[in-house]
Write a structure and sequence with these properties.
Blueprint lengths: L1 E4 L3 E7 L5 E8 L3 E4 L2 E4 L1 H19 L8 E6 L3 E5 L17 E2 L7 H8 L18 H11 L1 H6 E6 H10 L6 H7 L12 H6 L5 H5 L13 E2 L2 H7 L6 E2 L3 E2 H11 L8 E6 L3 E7 L9 E5 L7 E7 L3 H10 L8 H18 L8 E3 L17 E3 L7 H24 L10 E5 L6 H11 L2 E5 L4 H13 L6 H7 L4 E4 L3 H26 L2
Parallel strand pairs: 1-6, 6-11, 6-12, 13-19, 19-20
Antiparallel strand pairs: 1-2, 2-3, 4-5, 5-8, 7-8, 7-9, 10-11, 13-14, 14-16, 15-16, 17-18, 20-21
Length: 519
């Protein structure tokens, strides 16, 4: 069984040992926005959604609970705050104790991020030269300063994937995957806790408040078996072993790299969702501006992981749908309906559909190639059209800008990363043929898209199978659990049109800089 907790839902998949997806069930989770840049969740609601999806998936798959030998959890890098006895503690000015989780994309700690980045420390080298507001340390510093009562009572603070494994087993073992990539632990497992750096930024008591271990837990060693209460809630048995937690995008990399034997340097994974992550695995560490990494064994053993990406992609498209008069609620079905309609219009009108609209999609800051949460987006070429047709044009041009932005990130990767010619595309709406073709055309890369399989869930399942000893190595697991991929190649005619769209994106970036200089 694999559990993937994203920004808006918990997804559970059940796979056999040939990689066949037997069932996939999704349960939504709430997001609370008490004020601008504050985004909070309820970890008990998240756990309840996981349990509901687990039972539904078991029923849909028609498998006996005792046959589920291992479970893997991956999640966004959100921050769960608990007291010493494990009770939820509020992370909200409103004081609601159930709001105990700061979402990964929460930007409340911008000032604290700047303060951290003013320090000169070699730790920054593996975070592109500066910490991101999306990481845990600035959020923890904000919590200590602004909610002192919560900080005083804190005794367990988790990355979300570690919270889930703790909730499932009752055992507190923090995985190397989030600790190295988001908490500053040394990059090779077992990672060492950076106490000196914590003290420099004013978090000298963090190890005590978060119950952080001196060293991270290797991703190949299981956390332990399901506890009795957790097994009952999930519909499983206590014979089921729990794998260490993974960062959600890294689980996608496990599936896409673990089941493909081509050289690591020739390809990258593009995991799309609320944000978009470009994940590369290589035999040597890669670091540079706008990149996080390298972190060894954060996904697969003996390989160094480097990450880049967009702070908001799916979230930006949600925003477009929600705010347009013809949009409505941005459900996945609504997005698919819009893309289906756009595909018909693009087929009729060609690559100029949607012009003269041009979009700079940085509505929630940027992660790569520059890490700056204060950068903003823009839309040019709007008129007074409030119709569905107007929405289709704006939505499509937003998709084009996101795809061109991915090309811009690839163009600015460190030289050591090479020039990936193949992208494994997974997550979100990546399987829609219009988008997979768009990303092929915009990046010039051959796209490999999972066919009939949720790659992120499969990555967690493959990881769990190896951790539980069902396969001796990830290589043998990948060979056994390989899944079909559709290949999408760039269309030269569309690439010529997209050259103009790349130029428009660069022009809007320059104009943003010029306007900022006048303010």
């Amino acid at each position: 069984m694999a559990v993937d907790v994203g920004t808006g839902s918990a997804r559970v998949g059940i796979f056999d040992l040939t990689g066949r997806q037997l069932a996939r069930c999704v349960v939504p989770i709430s997001l609370h926005r008490p004020q601008h840049n504050h985004m909070e969740q309820d970890s008990e609601e998240i756990w309840g959604a996981v349990c509901q999806a687990s039972r539904a998936a078991l029923a849909a798959a028609g498998v006996d609970a005792a046959s589920v030998r291992a479970i893997g959890f991956d999640a966004t890098c959100s921050l769960v705050v608990r007291s010493r006895d494990g009770s939820p503690l509020s992370v909200s000015y409103g004081g609601k104790p159930e709001h105990d989780t700061i979402l990964w994309m929460d930007h409340r700690a911008i000032a604290e991020t700047d303060e951290c980045n003013a320090i000169d420390d070699p730790l920054f080298d593996r975070f592109g030269g500066r910490l991101s507001v999306e990481m845990q340390l600035p959020k923890l510093l904000w919590l200590k300063r602004h909610l002192p009562d919560t900080w005083a009572r804190a005794g367990l603070i988790f990355d979300l994937s570690d919270f889930l494994t703790w909730r499932a087993t009752g055992i507190d073992r923090r995985s190397h995957s989030p600790l190295a990539s988001k908490w500053g632990y040394s990059p090779e497992p077992p990672g060492v806790r950076p106490d000196a750096f914590y003290a420099q930024i004013g978090l000298q008591d963090l190890a005590e408040k978060a119950a952080l271990p001196e060293r991270s837990h290797p991703v190949r060693i299981p956390v332990g078996p399901l506890s009795g209460p957790a097994a009952e809630a999930l519909g499983l048995t206590t014979a089921c072993l729990v794998a260490p937690g993974l960062v959600d995008a890294y689980a996608g990399a496990v599936a896409l790299f673990g089941t493909d034997a081509s050289p690591a340097g020739s390809r990258a994974a593009l995991i799309a969702g609320t944000s978009s992550c470009i994940v590369m695995l290589s035999p040597d560490p890669i670091s540079g501006p706008g990149c996080w990494g390298g972190f060894r064994d954060a996904a697969l053993p003996d390989l160094w992981l480097t990450e880049a990406g967009q702070s908001a992609s799916g979230a930006f498209l949600d925003h477009i749908v929600r705010d347009h008069p013809a949009g409505g609620i941005p459900t996945k079905d609504r997005h698919r309906d819009l893309l289906d309609r756009i595909a018909e219009r693009v087929a009729e009108e060609g690559p100029d559909f949607g012009l003269p609209i041009s979009v700079l999609p940085d509505f929630h800051g940027t992660r790569s190639p520059i890490s700056n949460p204060l950068l903003t987006g823009a839309i040019s070429g709007l008129d007074l059209d409030r119709s569905l047709d107007g929405l289709l044009r704006l939505y499509w041009r937003s998709c084009v800008s996101l795809a061109c932005s991915i090309r811009n990130i690839l163009d600015h990767l460190p030289a050591k990363a090479g020039n990936p010619q193949a992208l494994f595309l997974a997550g979100g709406l990546a399987d829609h043929p219009l988008l997979s073709q768009l990303y092929a055309d915009a990046t010039g890369c051959v796209m490999h898209v999972p066919d009939g399989c949720d790659a992120v869930l499969l990555g967690s399942a493959l990881h769990a199978a190896v951790s539980a000893g069902l396969f001796p190595t990830p290589e043998t697991a990948g060979a056994a659990m390989r899944f079909p991929l559709k290949t999408v190649r760039p269309d030269p005619a569309r690439q010529a049109a997209l050259a103009r769209d790349h130029a428009l994106l660069r022009a809007m970036m320059r104009h943003r800089d010029e306007l900022s200089a006048l303010m």
